[in-house]
Design brief:
Layout: H1 2-22, H2 29-44, H3 62-71, H4 79-105, H5 108-119, H6 122-127, H7 134-154, H8 158-178, H9 182-185, H10 187-200, H11 210-272
């Protein structure tokens, strides 16, 4: 049975990659790749290459930068195809996540059914490769729900709980970099977790500690906050570093020029002596 599942899984992944390679370029795909390129050039040049782009202060393009970094490994001729494969991989992870969430809430068979329905759902499948925004939001939303469910069940295992908290903060930071209002979609999930802890108590384990939940919530926010502002902070540091370096260079040139101006006078004084 497991062998048949693996063959079926290999078939649909191969089919998805094939469609990703031969799919055409989306209307905004070039703009997204350009944003990732500008961000990477700015960071790798230590702030020296500072190209302006519309709404740069709004987007923290963590995923787009990673996407461009991966596409840059290959020839520029295949940039769009590689970007499609990267997007498809993230979308495929979202499909797996939906199956896992259904398995946690219901059972294994429901998880398999949800996996198949979501993969072959025409609207979702059509966007798996060419969409650089919505599929990332779907991936983050689905896996955040799964991680919250796992946290509620395994809070008493400190190592597992910390991994869940860090992963939640990372996913929230990546998603809000693409769409800031993504935070608003997390409110129902947070309310569900609070209702489960205080009223339903169907998922949480018997050793669940309510006080630790709020501590972990603060830790998750700190991880999210640090990742959300890292580009801005790093940009300021690199820009300041470049400014100081240029000032020191100018100061050194001025000092060197002054020494050159004083040299003829000193040699004349020595000759007179």
């Amino acid at each position: 049975m497991s062998k048949k599942k693996n063959i079926f899984l290999l078939f649909i992944i191969t089919f998805g990659i094939y469609c990703s390679i031969y799919a055409g370029e989306a209307w905004d795909e070039g703009d997204v790749i350009s944003r990732g390129k500008i961000t990477l050039n700015y960071l790798f040049s230590l702030g020296n290459i500072d190209e302006k782009i519309v709404f740069r202060e709004i987007y923290s393009t963590i995923y787009w930068s990673i996407n461009y970094f991966i596409t840059g490994i290959f020839h520029a001729k295949y940039q769009i195809q590689v970007s499609h494969v990267v997007n498809f991989s993230v979308s495929m992870a979202a499909v797996f996540g939906a199956g896992k969430v259904s398995k946690e809430l219901f059972n294994k068979n429901v998880g398999y059914l949800v996996f198949i329905i979501l993969f072959f759902y025409p609207i979702f499948f059509g966007h798996m490769s060419i969409n650089n925004k919505d599929n990332i939001l779907a991936f983050s939303h689905i896996w955040m729900v799964y991680l919250i469910l796992r946290y509620l069940k395994n809070q008493n295992f400190i190592d597992k709980a910390n991994k869940y908290i860090v992963s939640l903060g990372v996913l929230a930071a990546v998603s809000t970099g693409i769409q800031l209002i993504f935070l608003g979609s997390l409110i129902p999930i947070l309310l569900f977790a609070i209702m489960e802890i205080y009223y339903f108590k169907k998922i949480i384990n018997k050793n669940f500690i309510k006080k630790r939940f709020f501590y972990d919530l603060v830790k998750c926010f700190l991880v999210f906050y640090e990742l959300r502002v890292w580009e801005g902070l790093l940009g300021c540091v690199l820009a300041g570093y470049s400014l100081v370096q240029s000032d020191l260079s100018k100061y050194g040139n001025r000092r060197h020029s002054k020494q050159n101006l004083q040299l003829p006078g000193r040699t004349a004084e020595r000759q007179c002596e």
